[in-house]
Structure formats: C-alpha cells, structure tokens
UniProtKB/TrEMBL annotation, chains A, B, C, D:
It is an enzyme of class 3 (hydrolase). It catalyses: L-glutamine + H2O = L-glutamate + NH4(+). NCBIfam families: Gln_ase, PRK00971.1-2. Keywords: Acetylation, Hydrolase. This is Glutaminase. The gene is glsA.
C-alpha cells in the first residue's frame, strides 16, 4: 500500500464481492425509522490523513449514526476533563451485552467502559455538564471535521428512541441511585437520544474519525487529544467497540472499530487512514453483517490490520 | 394458650425485656422523615380473630408502613384478578437484596416474588390498572379493616420517597422494557410511593392483617380471599417477607411475617391471631432489631410458632 | 383430625386420586439405577408421634433416598457441634438451582443453605470429621429411628453416582479452594455419594423423621436436638427443602419438606405427625410429581398445613 | 526505528528507569517456589524477526513461565485441529477474574477465551488428546524455537501447583460435567500443572514467540500457523491476554501481550519483533508491576504500539 490511489480499486472490489453475498441480516426493528431501512443498502468510504476521501456505493447517503457517536462524545469529554472521566467509567471489556445491568450492580454503578450504553450515558452526562449541550457539541464537532454543515439531528428518530427508551431510562436511574449521574435523568436521556439520532454519511464519518488516525490532531491542524489519549481511545475501540463481539471483530478485522445499530461501523488504521462502512442489516450482536464482512475484506486485501 | 386474656402479660413481659436490651439498630436514613424517628420507640399489638386487641408501649402511635403495605396490595390484587397475577411475578425466594436488578435481568423482567421491590411494583401496577387508584384502594381497605377512618397517606413522605426514588425508577423502567408494566412508569411510581407512605399504628395493622389469620375473611365477615389464596399469601410471607433474611426470620420467629423500613413488622399465627410490632432501628437487612427480637420472644413464650 | 385412626382413609383416598391422575413426570436419568424405576410406583406413609404408622401403595418398598438424607446429616451434625456449623453454611434460600456455583463464588465459598448440594457437602464434610464416618453414622441413625436393621447403602448406586459426580467434585474442590472443606475432596465425595445411596421405604423414613415432629426427641425418648434446633431444621426445610421450588411447595403443601431425586419426599407436621411419599417421576425442579400432588391433597383434606 | 541496533540503548534506558522506580508489587505467594522470588529481579529481551536478541538485566535467568504457556498451547492446538477448537472455547474477553466460574455456568461450560484458566484447561485437554502429551509437546516446541535444549519442567513447582490446585480442579470437573473435557480430570490437571511449570528466560521466550511476529512462521522457516491464525492469536492476546486488566494493558502498552503469575510478560510487535520482560512482583490483577511499566516505556520510546 504505498499509494493512496490504490484505495479506490480496493473499495470497488469489496463492493463487488459484497454485492454477490447473500444474507445481509435484518435492520434494527425497535424503532420504525431504523426498521424501514433497505437491507441492500451498502456504502463504504476511506479517508486518508490529509482528508482525501474514496468511496463506493451509498457512501454519501446519510444514515443514523447511533452508537458510533459514543466515540466522539468520549473524545470530546476527554478533551474537556481528561482523566477525571475514568473515575466514573472503566476501560475494560464487559463480557456482557451492551445494555446489561448485571455488571453495573456488582460494580456499584461504575460502567465497565464508555461503549456499553451505561458507560455512554455517563460520558454524555459529563459532557453535558461541561458544555451545557452534549448533543450540540457533538454536532458542531462532526460538522467541523467532515466539512459538512448540513449534518443534523433527526428529531423524529430522537422522539422514537425516547418512546422506546425504557432500558436506557433504567440504566440512567440506576446509576443515579449510585450518585454517578450529575444531570437530572430525563435531561440526560434527552441529550443522549438526540446524540444517537445524528445522521451522517460514510464520507462524513470517515473524515470525522480522522483525528484518531492522526494521533489526536483535528482536520484544521489543532490538537483535540494528546497522542496518549488518542491511542487510549483506539485501544478502547479495539477491546470494547463492537458490543459483546469485540473479540470476534478484533480477530476478523484487526482494527479499532465502533459499530452502531443503524448499520454503520467506523474503523481506524492508526497513522494511515480511517474507514466507514454502512449497511443496515445486523447480526445477532447488533453489528452490520455486510459492514463487518467488508472490513474483514479490507484488512485482508490491504494487509492494514494492526496484527 | 387457651385464653385470649393471657396475651396482655405476654406483651408486658416482652416490652420489659426489650426495654433492658441495649442496641436497637439505626433508623433508615435515606429520607429525612424516617431518619428523624426515635430508635427507642417501641410498640406491639396482638389482635385476636374476633378483633380484640392487646397492646403495649407505642402501640397506638402511627408510623410509616412502607413495605408492609406490599402484603395488602398483594391480597387486594389477588382478590381482583386471582392467578393472572402469577404470570407477571413469581412466588420464590430471591436470594438477593430486595432492590437487586440482577435476577430480574436473568429472568426477563419477571420479579421473583411480590415482596422484593420489583415484584411490589408489578403488583401495584396491576392493582392500579384494576382499580384506577392503587394507593386509594389500599387506604380504603386499611381504614375498613382497622376501623380507623383517620388513616392517611403522608404526602411529605411520598414526595421525599419520590426524590430518592432512582432505584425504584430503574426497576420500573427496566420491567417496562420487558413489557411487564402496564401504566406509564411515572404514574406507577407515584402510586407506589404514596402506597409506601401510608401511616398506621401497631393496633391498626394488627387488625388489618386479621383476614390472613381468618383464612381470607374480612373484619365484616365477607370473604376477600379463598382459603387457598390466604394460605398462599402466608406462605409467601414466610419464605420472602423479610428481604434476604427470610430464612433467619423463619427459624428465629417461625411465623409468616412482613417488615418495612419504617421499623414495623406484621406477623400471622394462622387460625389464632395477628401481631404487629414497631421500633424504628434497623439491622443490616432492613428489619427492625427490636421488632425481630420481640417476635422471637413472642413465639418462644407462647409456643405459637408454626414449627 | 381428632383421632389417629382417620389417617388410613385419608391415605386410601389420596392413593385412589393419584391412581386416576395422568402424567407422573420422568424418573431421574443421570444414573441407570434411578432411570430404571417404574414411574407408576407410588407409596405413602404417615407416622404419628408415638410411632404408629399408616401406609398405602408401595409404602414398604425401599427406594433411593438421595437428597432426603441431607435432613438427617444436618440434624446429626447440629447434634455434634451445634451453632459452629452455621459459620460454614448459611440458612437462607438460594434462589438458584440446587447445584449452581454462581452464588457460591459471590459469597466466597459459603453455601447458602444445607440443602443445596454445596451446603450438603459442607455438612457431610463436618459430620465426617466429627464421627470419622458420615455415611455410617447416618445409617446407624436411620436404622435406630425406623427400627429397621436391614437398611443399607446400595454400593452400586454409590459407584454410579461417583462416575457421574463431576458437578459435585467441582463444588467440593471449589469450596476447598476457599478453605471451607476439612477432608480431602475425594474422601468427602465418597462419603457423600454413599450417604445419597441409602435405601429406605416410606415407612422407614416417616419414622426416622419423627424427631422433627417431636421437637428434637428421638424414638427412644432421648433428645437429639434442642427444641430450638428442631424448629430451625423445620424452618430450613420449609424455606429451602425443595430446590428452587421451595416457594411453590410452601404455598401448595404448606409443610416443612425435603425431596430427593429418587422420588421421595418427607414432610413434618410439627407436634402431630410426619409423612413420607414416594413416586419416581420428577418435575422440572427435581421434585416427585405425584409426591407433591399427594402432599397437596394431604394438607387440603386434613387441614394440617402450618398456614 | 530503522535499525535493529537501536534496541539495545532502548533496553538500557528502560532498565535504568525501572531501577529508579520504587514499588515492585509482591510475588505470587500461593506456592513457595514463586513466593521465594526476589521482587527486585528484572530482565528484558527483544528478539528481531531473524532471531537477533537484545537483552538487559536478568534476561538470561530462567523463571516460571506459568500462564505465558497458554499462548503456545493455543498455537500448537490450532496447528493440530484448527477451527474445531473454537467450538469448545470462545474468543471474547471475559470481564471477570481469570479463575471465575460464574460466566462458565451461564454459558454451559464453554469458557470465554483460551487465556482464562478454564479456557486454558480446554486447550490443554485437546492438545493432550491430539498429541498424547501436552506438556511434552509444549516443551519440545519451546526448545526448538529458543534453540535452548536445557529448557525443562520444574517438577517441584508442578507438585506444588497440584497441591494448591483446588480451584483448577473445580474448573476441570465443572467443564467435564458439561461434556467439554475429553481426558480424565486428574490426567488433565497433571498435564496442565506441568505445562505451567516450564522454566525459561526472557531470551528464550522472546525467541519462542517469534512465530507470532512472523505471521505464523517458525524459527526454521516452516509454517506453524496460517497468517490468519497468527493474527487471530495476536488479537486474542490483545483483548484477553492480561486477565481482567486487558483493557488497561491495551491502552497503556498497545501490543498483544500475555502475562503469567511468575512475573513474565511476552508481547508481539507484528512484523517487527517480540519482547519478553520479567520481574516477579505483581499488581492486584496478577500482572508484573515492573513488567507492565517496562512495556509501557518500550512502546512510548519506540512508537511501536499498534495504535
């Protein structure tokens, strides 16, 4: 891989292979907006460190980012308060489903990591306290990094998430009972559901993830995170980024990655590029079937696995 | 124990012994109204099947009934919908603290029994659906059985419970996420916190519990529960009535009983009488220290243990 | 129920009803000796306090006592070391299947109660240390109380248990790792499997259980347990005696009872009589289907429930 | 890092820094042989792909490899039976301590990954079945890769492990009860304790790990694992290699690594080199305090983190 020009044929080849693959899983069906997605949709983009973007398929179509936003709120909160955060959320794999309450109870309301729902709620709660508007801060950041001023929150999706949000409400109140939530739980949930409802395309997200491939440097050259913090976020992505299938993702794809139930996955090749893939059909762990397959092919073809 | 006249000296003797006992535990301190209770308070009452009541100490002073009300809402809901209830809550001991979420998750939102908080929320939810006003239905019943029209809900305590209600809110939303709650969670919590805030005295509660000693017959001679249902409630009290110390209560006291964090405990001698004791200082399981000791003495002196 | 003469017609009536009942469950099939039992077998015996025995059906046929023996080893160990035992095993319902390791781990190798397998292993271990031969001590006791010198251990069954004993071996080694086992684990397992392989009839077991109805007094009039200890054993039977269906047994039958996977169940009416029923077909909890049904009928017909 | 010659000054600098660091943790004390280690011992070695080795401190002193051997038995079993293994052990982080039985019970005797003790027992059991002598196969491999014919099993340590092996015996019998162990449990435990008792130096282990940096190629140029399998082992090391501190290791060190309670840690820089560090003092997770610190410095100084 000596030349960036070679990414386009790689993407074309992957798209052609995915096209031939039967079985795409099923879109998330807990809210109508996600259930309505066409499982045949597929898009993939690669962004180089300098912002050059390559893409294939539906790579410019916005989709619901959902849990992918947890990476950005984590980075933004670390930028604001640094290690203080780690007193309120851990950095270890959970070994349990993403919305489980069991471990939370045994560990006194401190979530295992920032990417299970409980941990993401803590991160959003703290970012909301730091900035007064967690979802707005996130949106500003994504717009700046992607250069796309049209990125927006889908308020219908946010309302739909809220209407089906009992499990997250339970997590929020449960952690509040341990004193680990600073905002009123309804306000936190509102911020969280709006955060999850940001819509962006593969191109937008590949660009927005660039600071993790650049060891903390934003698109405009300013520093968001220290090199150590950027590596930390990548490490947490690799060990905890794909729900309870983090191990499988690590050995199949071999890159730090984060998935969302909207069918998107972002991945980082440190020092080299970022990738975003989207296809709404999910496997039993909540990860995009075609998305994982495409990233598996990507690292196999390019040799760009960290292992 | 051939004559009811002998209960008064028994109570006097127990009160004298308790008076000599150092160490009463500490009142619940999660809300101010409970924390303000004098741990030296002690009252005890015995009601015969015919409504004759004997008492000692602070037996006529109202206190916060709290979880004791779970017995009455259980009976009232069974009277309304019978076995339908048991599809939504189990009847087995939980082996976990009263407000744990762990077992609830492993068992898909069906609480182990009606006396852990999760189970009591389900019972109140269903009674609220049946009657439109769970707390009001409870209050009417307690007034009728005790003959005390002055029984009331302490709305300050209810508000205070609500302000410290994150754990119960978590339980409610969590079960709602499994489809096991019919009312909106905030409405359910309001009903539940008002139910817990009913105030009554030892005399009131000993009388109100009488239907369980009379195998289902109310004070006015009408039937609330079938004999089988009344035995069922007694059995659930014996195996699950005192949080995660049900085993200890069973072998020390040997009667179906139910405690509350207000420091009250009711107990049933089937076919013979009911007992209510109150002292606000609690042990580590949330049971009244002097209350358990007094009941232990009661069954030892009278031989009225079921074992 | 004023006269002992009335037990015979009660038993005859129950046997006739059970005869008409379809569905007996399936015998335990983890070892051949149990799997070979005829699920249509049914016997039931009642023993009065004075040793008068009534019976019906296969009430004199020996069967594999299995977990029923846990009641006797518990009583025998309490007779030897009294409350010392309770530092090594709890007295609370477990809320988990009888051979679960989960709670054991969270509670540092102290089993919840003497009737789950882990707790029974602790009791046998301690009795073995006290007497040098736990299974022999048990056998001597059962022979003396039943007056049947022919009671014996089925060594083939014991060998078969041992060959299928990995789960119990795991429990033994696990507790040994916490320092809660005094004998070498293989020696303990040998004693335990021999204990479980004692064979006795309904008549034998109803008589042998008599000391629990007589508040601690043996058949020869000597005292095995204090009144308080006898009530304690009854309380533990009621709250923990039928695996994870203790609650269901309590509200259906309403007596302290203990079941075994051989299909036997013993039950105690304190101060009145003991009952033993046997039918090898089991329900999903490991309790005899016809046995529970027969005891349910027994308390319904006689009114002898403790509730 | 363009020249291999630069590793020596890196190692010298790290050793000098570690020398100044107070607090080394405490050696494992569950067996005398480990407890007797001097916590001030420190050695570190780096092996290039071609077998060139650099070292500092006690890098040639043999120590007890313990859990580090789990990497080699995993690789050897994969070489024998490939993906068949993954039907008997998972590849996901466990989120629980290395010797926990909880998850094992919820997941029916299938361990979460090959590096918790339960998983390592399954791997050894299968390798033992494949080869007839798991520990011997391991020893032959380590001798061949390190070129050190003197590598040996410390039989005293193996005997000592066996004498303190109740927890592992519990794991073995527990999995056997689910049918997930093929050999008799005592034979498996003997093989496992002997495997853990292999002694080797930092130099030996850095060389023996080389096949993971060479994507599956052994020292003699033959292939042990496919490229995909080699990456898989690296991925499992990164996500599961350091007990319940895998996340912390990933973000501090950023390399696939595996620790042992003897105080050793091996780490892989794919395509570049391997590292082994040894210092017997452990932290609360069972990882070498100075070892983790030295690897942290190594990736910081050289920039050779995978992130």
């Amino acid at each position: 891989m000596s030349s960036p020009l070679t990414f386009q044929p790689v993407l074309d080849r992957i798209a052609a292979e995915i096209e031939q693959t039967p079985g795409r899983g099923r879109p998330a069906d807990y809210i109508p907006a996600l259930a309505a997605c066409d499982p045949r949709s597929f898009g993939m983009a690669v962004a180089e460190l300098d912002g050059t973007v390559y893409g294939v398929g539906d790579w410019r179509q916005p989709f619901s980012t959902q849990s992918i936003t947890k990476v950005f709120t984590l980075a933004l909160d670390l930028a604001h308060e640094a290690d203080e955060l780690w007193e309120h959320v851990g950095r270890e794999p959970s070994g349990n489903p993403f919305n489980s309450l069991v471990q939370l109870e045994y560990e006194n309301g401190i979530p295992r990591n920032p990417f299970i729902n409980a941990g993401a709620l803590v991160v959003t709660d703290r970012l909301h306290t730091q900035t007064g508007d967690a979802a707005g801060t996130l949106l500003d950041f994504l717009r700046a990094e992607s250069g796309n001023e049209h990125l927006a929150i889908n308020e219908d999706v946010a309302a739909s998430e809220s209407a089906h949000g009992d499990r997250n409400a339970a997590l929020g109140h449960f952690m509040a009972s341990y004193g680990n939530i600073g905002n009123p739980v309804p306000a936190l949930l509102d911020a969280y559901f709006r955060q999850c409802s940001v819509e962006a395309s593969c191109a937008d997200l590949a660009l927005a993830t660039g600071f993790l491939a650049r060891h903390g440097i934003r698109a405009d050259g300013s520093r968001l995170l220290t090199m150590s913090q950027a590596k930390e976020v990548n490490a947490v992505m690799l060990t905890c980024g794909t729900y309870d299938a983090a191990g499988e993702f690590a050995y199949r794809v071999g890159l730090p990655g984060k998935s969302g139930v909207g069918g998107g996955i972002i991945a980082v090749v440190p020092g080299r590029c970022t990738v975003c893939v989207w296809s709404p059909g999910l496997d039993g762990h909540g990860n995009s079937v075609a998305g994982v397959a495409a990233l598996d092919r990507f690292t196999t073809i390019t040799g760009l696995s960290v292992f």
